[in-house]
Amino acid sequence: MGLQNISEEQARLIYNSYSPYVYGIALMLTRSAPTADDIMQETFLRAFQKYDQYDPSRPLKPWLYRIAVNLAKSAMRRQKWLFFQEDPPDIGDEFLVEESLMKSESERELWESVNKLSAKRKEVIILHYYAELSLPEVAEALNIPEGTCKSRLHEALKQLRRSHGSGWPEVRCKEEME
Predict the structure, then answer these.
(1) How would you label 87-124 residue by residue, b for 16+ Cβ within 10 Å and e otherwise?
(2) What is the pTM of this model?
(3) Which of 135, 112, 109, 115 lies closest to 124, judged by CA?
(4) Environment class of 54 (CB within 10 Å of its CB; exposed 0-12, middle 13-18, buried 19+)
């Protein structure tokens, strides 16, 4: 088992560094605070159990997010609901991850529009803009080709622009701006 390959201190450092983002992604995908908490816990349990399968020459973030996204998809399939509420869940003051995205009305409108995207497009948007993964890292996290990732992002951005008309600011991915 992979637990022999990771020290307690290493595990604690990884958990403390990445758990808020893993939780945030799980929450955005499932729209359920208890489910997101379960997914976060299970993500780290699996990551630590399979740590011997992790390639340390590659970034850790996409590997963890792939586990979290797969667990979120499984949870949604099990619960047989794949819809997203109009408003973000009320999760209290102790969870500031999503609240930080909602500081202004325009960000709230953007969040509502993102919730209307298909699950595949929404995943790419969340991982690229919220988790700040590069497109190659998003592709790795979702276990899809980079070209597919770029296509989903392009289509998601196009759909967001269409839904907000000409007044919507031009949103581009970081790779397009470089």
Answers:
(1) ebbebeeebebbeebeeeeeeeebbebbbebeeebbbb
(2) 0.61
(3) 135
(4) middle
